[in-house]
Amino acid sequence: MTRRTPPPGTSTLAASDTLASDAAGAARATPSSGIEDTVDAADVTRPPSDGPARPSPTAALPSDPAHLPLVAATTYQHLDEVGRGGLGRIVRARDTRTGRLVAIKEMRTDSHDAAIRFVREALVTAHLQHPAIVPVYEVGRWPSGQPFYAMKLVTGRPLSRVIADAPSLDERLALLPHVIAIADALAYAHGEGVIHRDLKPGNAMVGAHGETVVIDWGLARRLDRDEDSLPPLAPGTPGTADAAGQTALGSVLGTPQYMAPEQARGELVDARADVYAIGAILYHTLSGKPPFDGLTTVGEVLEAVRTRAPTSLTRLAPGTPRDLIAIVERAMATDVATRYPTAAALADDLRRFATGQLVSAHHYGRGERLRRFVRRHRVPLVIAAVAATALTATGAISLRRVVHERETARAAERAQARARGAGASRRCHGFAARRELPRSAPRGALAAASQPTPSRCSRRRRGSRRTAPTSASWARASPRRCPRSARSGRRA
């Protein structure tokens, strides 16, 4: 048998790194806690809704592995193992009928109860058809009676590893589209009446081309069916352990650090438990650490989840936008009624934040609204500001020119008015002089009084042609005659 090993830094999975359907998955804990494995025990789900239940697509399908169709062992060529958990493993194989590479998940134990859980996981996963959910190609059993299912081979890295490779907040903020894809996938699953109950960054694969796929639906439940009768795993089943071994039995199920408080208390859960888990994934993405990081045992984490909220992001990641912190706090609210009612509402708020719009989880003041408006419409505002500045400068120059031309016109009008006033004044003086002369005055004296007073230069040019009054007494009667003319009259 030929075995191929994936390149370093890349894992090829189709369902999960931990195979949580076997209730114990391989340990994928953070170095500080070692508690990020799935806790599985008595199955807990919410009661049927008050309205008429929608028929389950898997209701008519077999739940007993013995009723699954028999598939020949030669149908798939097993290549190599790419993942292993407590009760199952993931094998890369080639479908000999089509030649395509697939991932096969098969059992590692002969436990009948574990087999029932395994079949339930396969059927629930096969029912979900979404781009962000791994598709199942075939569900069957080998000639040995062991159940298996074949699914799409997803090549990439878990989101947890991608987050670990992003040390700065800006790099982690760039991972927000992956969280939105997870929320969209769960919104679709909730619409189909299925809840995941074990969401965490390790159960989301990021492909080589940026695609995001939610895997490991081993703890998924349909909300329109009463599945509390599903048998719990026996304590002696391979892969189970006590709290010190990261798996607890008989009370709760899921991964403690991403588990909703009501789920940690063993209560009935609905889709809002997945909403809390998506908020915990977003918390991990922004802070670089899982919620309640630093606690060492499952019991400590469960007690913390039940009683308090995790450390605020304002302390762990001070540069995180406040509206994004508000989204996390609402999604991870300890009160179920305070959370987003659906994963679709959470995805919508995340998408609104990503596009620069206002989110429903945050209350915005006037100043914050103005700043967001400026950031969102920066280019149009800059263009408008430049245009307004140009228009203002053009208007100011035009106004200055108009004012200058108006002042020039007013100065010209004042000069003309002064000139007209001077001419009118001279004519008035001449008329006054004529009125002061007696009617018996000679005609020459009357003509001289009517003319403006000549200048000295004009008198010099005229010389001897000047006509003097016939009498010195008449010359003195004109107030406009200069003393020189008066003297000339006296000499005459």
Report on the architecture of this protein.
The chain has 492 residues and is α+β, with helices and mostly antiparallel strands. The chain has a five-stranded antiparallel beta sheet, covered by helices on one side. Strands 1-7-9-10 form a four-stranded antiparallel beta sheet. Strands 8-11 form a two-stranded antiparallel ribbon. The radius of gyration is 49 Å and the shape is elongated. Helix 6 (271-287) packs antiparallel against helix 9 (322-331) and helix 12 (378-436) packs antiparallel against helix 13 (443-450). A hairpin with a 4-residue loop joins strand 9 and strand 10. It has helices spanning 112-127, 159-164, 169-173, 176-191, 261-264, 271-287, 298-307, 313-316, 322-331, 343-354, 366-376, 378-436, 443-450, 456-462, 472-476, 483-491, and strands at residues 11-13, 76-84, 88-95, 101-107, 136-141, 147-152, 154-158, 194-195, 204-207, 212-214, 221-222.
Keywords:
elongated, 40% helix, alpha+beta, 5-stranded antiparallel beta sheet, 492 residues, 16 helices, 4-stranded antiparallel beta sheet, disordered N terminus, 11% strand
Topology:
Layout: E1 11-13, E2 76-84, E3 88-95, E4 101-107, H1 112-127, E5 136-141, E6 147-152, E7 154-158, H2 159-164, H3 169-173, H4 176-191, E8 194-195, E9 204-207, E10 212-214, E11 221-222, H5 261-264, H6 271-287, H7 298-307, H8 313-316, H9 322-331, H10 343-354, H11 366-376, H12 378-436, H13 443-450, H14 456-462, H15 472-476, H16 483-491
Antiparallel strand pairs: 1-7, 2-3, 3-4, 4-6, 5-6, 7-9, 8-11, 9-10
Helix pairs in contact: 4-6, 4-10, 6-9, 9-10, 12-13
